[in-house]
Amino acid sequence: MVTLFSKLIGSEVISQSSSSKLGRIDNIVFDKENFTIAAIILNKKFFFSPTKIIAASDLLALSPDLILIRSDDSPVYIKELPKLKQSLKSFPVGTGQKVVSYSSKKIGTAYDLLIDLDSKQIKSLYIHNFLDERIIPISTVIGFQKGVFIIKDEFSEIKIPSLSAELSDAK
């Protein structure tokens, strides 16, 4: 089953051990090597409370409606998982990353991600620029550096009917 990143944000997080609701997903951290979910970030209960994070190894089931985790002890403070804390620095969570080709041509900005819920891996980038939208498979990504997806110069894409097409049809 696949779903969009945007559909997972706000999903209820439930503990399997106690069936209690532990919060909602605020964001998702991805591993920049294989583009799989490394952890999920819970929403803060209070503005000044520290961030809690749940490692991917504690995720039992994912769906747009709820996230099932092992136990009430699964959410930990980010400082308790130094490797994930480092991942947060090198791979920004969520969307909004720039997408450029290997030859430095600006393709656009990733506004959503298609995620395979079984493998917990990004499958496609949903990209937009000024008047254009497209879907690019993650297989075209050859790197990720400083908040930028770098893709092959020759890439396959699915064009999404966009505002520019609607404007030209209206004439």
In summary, what is this structure?
With 171 residues, this protein is mainly β. It has helices at residues 5-8, 82-90, 163-170; strands at residues 2-4, 12-15, 21-30, 37-42, 52-55, 59-62, 66-69, 76-77, 98-101, 106-116, 121-128, 133-137, 141-145, 148-151, 158-160.
Q: How large is the radius of gyration?
A: 18 Å
Q: What are the segments in which pLDDT stays under 50 over at least 5 consecutive residues?
A: 163-171
Fold-level CATH name of the largest domain: SH3 type barrels
* Termini separation: 40 Å
User: Which band does the percent of strand residues land in?
Assistant: over 45%
Describe the structure.
The chain is mainly beta and 171 residues long. Helices cover 12% and strands 45% of the residues. The strands form 2 sheets. Strands 1, 9, 10, 11, 12, 13, 14 and 15 form an 8-stranded mixed sheet that branches. A 7-stranded mixed sheet has the order 6-7-2-3-4-5-8. The longest helix has 9 residues. The C terminus is likely disordered.
Write the layout of secondary structure elements.
Blueprint: E1 2-4, H1 5-8, E2 12-15, E3 21-30, E4 37-42, E5 52-55, E6 59-62, E7 66-69, E8 76-77, H2 82-90, E9 98-101, E10 106-116, E11 121-128, E12 133-137, E13 141-145, E14 148-151, E15 158-160, H3 163-170
Parallel strand pairs: 2-7, 9-14
Antiparallel strand pairs: 1-10, 2-3, 3-4, 4-5, 5-8, 6-7, 9-10, 10-11, 11-12, 12-15, 13-14
Provide the descriptors you would attach to this structure in a database record:
171 residues, eight-stranded mixed sheet, SH3 type barrels, mainly beta, 2 domains, disordered C terminus, 15 strands, seven-stranded mixed sheet, elongated
